[in-house]
Every structure is written in C-alpha cells, then in structure tokens.
Amino acid sequence: MLRFFSTFPPLNKLPIFSRLKSNIPIMQHVLKITSLKLNQQPLPKQPVPDLEKTAERYLKTLKPLLNEEEYCNTDKVVRKFISEDGLGPSLHKKLQERYEKTENWMGVWWLKAAYLGYRMPVIVHSSPGTVAPRQGFKSAEEMYTFAARLVEAVCNYNAMVKSGKMKQEMVRKDPLDMLPYGMILGTHRQPDRGLDKLLHTDHAKHIVIICNNHFFKLNIVDGSGKSLNENQLKATIKDIAKRSCTAENAVGILTGDSRDTWAENHAILKDIGSNSNVLKDLESSLFVLCLDKELPKDAFKSKNYASVRSVQTMTGFSSCTNAGNRWHDKTVQYIVSPGGYCGMEYEHSPCEGVPVAVLHDFVLNQVARKSETKCEDTTNFPKAEELKFILNDKLEEAIKEAARGVDKLSENIDMECFTFEDFGTDEIKKCKLSPDSFIQIAMQVTFYKLQKKPPAHYESAALRRFISARTECIRSTSTESVAFAKLMISDCGSDSEKKEALTKAINAHKQSAGEAAAGEGIDRLFFGLKMIAIDEKIELPAFYKDVGWTRSTHFTLTSSQVPFKTASFMCYGPVVPEGYGCCYNPRPKDILFACSSFQDCPETSSKAFAETLRENLCNMKKVAEQ
Questions:
Q1: Shared domain check, 283 and 215
Q2: How far apart are CA 348 and CA 326, in angstroms?
Q3: pTM tops 0.90
C-alpha cells in the first residue's frame, strides 16, 4: 500500500497545548484557505476510532517502552479511563458529536496545536528543507539562467494547479484530497502573540526575490497580463544581483526567531513608516526566491556537500552568510547559490510534504528539459521594485539578538545526509517485503544498537483519503521490532530465526501503518479527547499524566518517508533534545537519507546513526535473502 509521510512537532513540545481555548480567534474556513475546487470525486470524513479498540492497541505499543511495574500501573489507568465510570466514554461521545457537526473534527484543533500555536522557531524544529541534486553551475550566468527557469517553472506549475485540471490522485480505489495542492503557493504564516494566522491568495501576481538581505518585488506578468519569459526573468535577476552588491540589514533573520518574539518585533516593524506595505507585498507574493552567497570552503571541511546544504536550506547556515537572506513565514522559499546549490524550505502549516515534493520534482524536470538551450540576453525587462524596511534602534538590536539565536541553532543541528547506493526499493520488493517497513525496522535496529533501548518512534501517515485531514502517528516500535533488534545485535540466533523475527517485525509495522492510514490510529483519537476536555474546562484526566502517555509521546526517533522522483531529499531536526530525526526518499535503485541530532546532546551522534543505519540495511538484506 502506498503511503506518504511527513513530520510534525510532538504535542508534548507545544507550550500552548495545555491552555488552548476554543475562543482563540482564527481565520474562518482556515482548513480551506484556497477557493480552488480541485477534488473531482467526493471524499469521506475522517472517522472517530472506537475507544476500547484504540485503548487496546495503545497498551500494546507501550509494552516495549515500560517495565513490568510501569505497564501494570498504566494498564489500570487506561482501564479506568475507558470504563463506564471513567471520563473516556463521555469525552468520546462529545467527540462523535463534533464529528457530526464539522467537515473534519481534528482539523482546526490540529492546525492550532501543531503549527500556528507552535512557539519555537520554525527553522529546524518545524519547517522542513529540501535539497536538490547539485546543478554544477560553471558561472554566475548559468546560475542566473537556472534561477530564471526555476521561476518560470513554478509559475507554470501554479497555472496548472489553478486550471483545476490536475488529475485526482488515488490509492488503489480511494481518491486523495487534492486541496493541499492549492494551499502551497500564495500562502503566508503571519506571526501573532500566542497563535499565528494563515494568510492566502489564489491570485498572486508577483514574487519576492531576496539577495544579500535586499528585498525586491517582481511582477511575474506584464501590463497586458502576459507572463514574463525566461530571458526577461534572467535579466531582472541579474539586475537584482547587481543592485545588491552591498549587504542590507538582515531583517529576514527575525523570521527565524521564536514565534512570540518575532510577533512582538513584527508589530513594531509594521507600525513604522511604509513597512506595512512591504509586509503586505511579502504576504501576498506567490513565493520567495533567495539568491544566496556561496558558503566559505571551510564549511565543507568536516561534512559532505549534502549535509552542509541541508543546514543552509533550513537556516541559511549562519548570520555571516545567508541567515538574513530569508523570509521563513512564506510557505515556499526556493534557494539558489553558486556552486550548483538549489534548495527549498517550506513552512509546514498549510500541508504535508508530498504536494511540496510534487511541485519540486515538476520544477526540476522542467528546468532540466531546457538545459540544452541558451537563455538569450535582453534589454527589454521589467525592473524589480526594491522593498525597503525602515528600522529603529529596538529592531536593530532585535536583529542582532535573532542572529545570535539562529547561529546557535545552526551550529547545534548535526546533519548527516547520504545516498545509500547498495540497493533501493526494487531489491527489497524482490524479497517480498514492504520497503517502508524494511527501512523503519532498520532504524529500530540502529537506535537500539546505539542507545541500548528502544525508541519512542514516530512515523507520520498522511490522511489525504479523508476530506481536509492531516496526519496520524504510526507507532513504529513494537515488541516484534525490539525482538528482532535484540537478535540482530547479539551473537545468538540462526539465520532462519532472524528471518522469522524480521518477517514478524515487518508485519507488525505494516499492520500499525495500515490502521493509521485508514484513520484508525491511536494518537489523534486521544488528542481529540484531550481537546474536548480542554474545551469543556474538565480537569485533565490521569491518562495524560501517566508515564505510558508521557514516555510514548516523547519521540526520541522521528522518521518520515517523503518520496521524490528526482535525487532530492527532505530534512528537519529532531523533536526532542536527545532524539534523532530521519527523513528518507526511497527510490528504485537507491535511498536518500537525512539524519539529524543535536550537537549539545552527548548521547546522540548523527554520523554514528548514519553509519550504523548503512550497516543494518545491508545486514537485514542478507537476512531477508535467506
């Protein structure tokens, strides 16, 4: 079964989660910020899973994570919660009533809790980066040509989406929600104290280009309504680079600060001079293009190309290079720099990773098709309007403070990205195994070998088979996966025993993943019950204070499959200080991995994780071939 995955910040990291109120203002129709009609076939509503069955599945997932005494106590807490005298059934009934009254019972709650209410910086923690294959520009001219064709390709993609003629995607006979495709371009996250706002326009006529911290507004259609061609775009981009020789104040770095700090500075910025107009131009743009400076050569001393570029994609790398050359509130930021680098960062609020990956592949393929043709010079091009921010002393000091924070985060994120070339999904399928489950179990063995304990392992399943739905958690850790991990790292056990254990681990994962993708997972139901309790001002049930819940939602390993057809990969940071993140793009002949951890945690090492993962993938294939 085909499934798509992306990551999110876990609920235990969300400071607003325990104090969300139902009367917090939020945009009306926030789940449908686009007016486009992209679904040719109707979709069902996301179901509310059965309480007792979900509780049993939940208890099963806790067995590898709790000792016997802890499990016995948790079992009592869960049984009491779901009993006739417990709070569970009454909360579940109210959740079912919400299901009847709404298009999607989880949607607005989830958008608030997981995204718009998330107060940490979006960089590393929430907004994924995408690194494209190295382009190998031989000159600045080639980079400008590439950038022009990239802009043209994004505009062509936007026109295709707006036409409403995109074929509805399917998983077997089930149609998938196409609405996310209309929510990528033209979307912007506006900071606000406590809870941000999501803004969108279906009719964006301009983009914003950032170069050396300068902001430029470029109308992508001329006065007659005709789109700019690649020759005009290249000439305009060259002109922007020429006008940006001297660095401007790094206003963009403010968007990499904590959300409440940025909200305060945003309010100050907006009230000065014509800054509100500049902000409106950013908010209403189709997307942002960042023309970056090349990184210093010593940036690549201890890391490979992909690992260094992943940090550049997520943060700008440093305040001395490109961290100010960003506007992280924009859903789509494309990034191009000398040395052949192309990347994209996307703000996670509107949608999951797969529609963004489809956009990315479309753009790269369209640019590649033009690689043999020459982009002609022209003097007939529109001059982009420079957008000038006016600053005061407080904002200049805020920029310095934000720079310190972004630099600290950039230095702390430890990325180890690599292409596993020994085999890909074709070889795994020959063993009659699920490629995704195979990779997930390899991560389990890797974590267990390094940490000597199983992870609380999060894998995100997209729920696009339901209208306006987001994700469900696949709890990848199972008693079967732990049993296999123990067998693989020990000297005991025959080849046949290992193969049997591998098969059991993969089957357990497939079952859990199938339930999650069908809307019958564990975490979203209990999220919904907790939200009902908050809305009804009911004291939080003991269930949510129990070690079973707190430990199993403290995700020490967060993983996502984000498939690209191109040799691109998505990347993000861990969701807990002592955790790992692992995003992967499984392709027929290879698998691209982006492994992350934090430098200041002595218990973790991205390099060790990556090297051990390589080893385990090969060892598991030998076992599978027995």
A1: yes
A2: 16
A3: yes
Residue 260, token pair as written in the block: 């409440």
In a domain, 259, yes or no: yes
pLDDT of residue 602: 97
- What domain range includes position 287? 122-413
Q: Give one word for 418, left, alpha or beta, with left for phi > 0 and alpha for psi -120 to 50.
A: beta
Residues written for the chain: 626
Pairing verdict, β 569-571 and 557-561: unpaired
Kindly tell me the burial class for residue 613, based on how many C-beta atoms sit within 10 Å of its own C-beta (0-12, 13-18, 19 or more). buried
Please tell me the predicted confidence (pLDDT) of residue 450.
Answer: 98
Q: Catalytic residue among 92, 348, 360, 554, which?
A: 348
How much is the pLDDT for 260? Answer: 98
User: In angstroms, rounded to a whole number, what is the distance separating the alpha carbons of residues 268 and 280?
Assistant: 15
Q: What is the dihedral of CA 273, 274, 276, 279, to 10 degrees?
A: -130
- pLDDT value of position 19: 35
Q: Is residue 488 part of a domain?
A: yes
Is 348 one of the catalytic residues? yes
Residue 309's nearest CA partner among 275, 336, 278, 280 is 336
Task: Tell which residue, 202, 227, 211, has the closest CA to residue 147.
Answer: 211
- Judge whether 54 lies within some domain: yes
* Chain Cα centroid distance, residue 165: 26
Q: Could you read off the pLDDT of 79-88 as tens digits, one per residue?
A: 999 999 999 9
For the beta sheet containing 557-561, the strands, ordered from the edge strand earlier in sequence to the opposite edge, are: 413-420, 591-598, 580-586, 557-561, 457-462, 471-475
The confidence score (pLDDT) of residue 223 equals 79
Strands 206-211, 288-291: pairing is parallel
The alpha carbon torsion through 148, 275, 330, 599 (nearest 10 deg) reads 110
Residue 206 CB-half CA count within 13 A = 21
Q: Which residues of the chain have pLDDT under 70?
A: 1-32
Domain count, the chain: 3
